[in-house]
Amino acid sequence: MREREYDMKVESDKVVSIDYTLRNDDGDILDQSSPDAPLAYLHGHGNLIEGLESALLDKDEGDQLTATIAPAEAYGEYDATLVEAVPRAMFQGVDKVEVGMQFQTQMGQGVQIVTVKDVDDETVTIDANHALAGETLHFEVTVKGVREASEEELDHGHVHGPDGHHH
Ligand code: ZN
User: Fold this and answer.
1) pLDDT at 151 over 70
2) Given this model, what pLDDT does residue 5 score?
């Protein structure tokens, strides 16, 4: 326990630490933070999905909240046009292509993750939807801490330090 010096609310450019549990519509746990390692993120820089950042805005340290987030504010609607069959020959150097495997492909400036949906001798069916596309997400969140971001963190648009990313 430590004394709180002043109230700091969750808002843009603050570093926020959260404990969270993410469930799908069936109540299955999809993801959660480790008990002793809250997730730290820089608010307002697109580091969390839009719907979760909106739910956290103006919360205080110690606040608990639940948020139900529709696909449009999470990982998008499932887009059937992102499923395509490509020649098996595109997977040169991969001994065995199996359903469920994930590959990275270069897409313009970014890297796209695709998941193998089906395989036969000639073709591999790949799906470029996010694994959680089309899912309504149910979060339970506890705000563990809110602090000012450093200049460098603001510059980079993400958190540094013990809970964040290191250079
Ligand atoms: Zn950085």
Assistant:
1) yes
2) 61
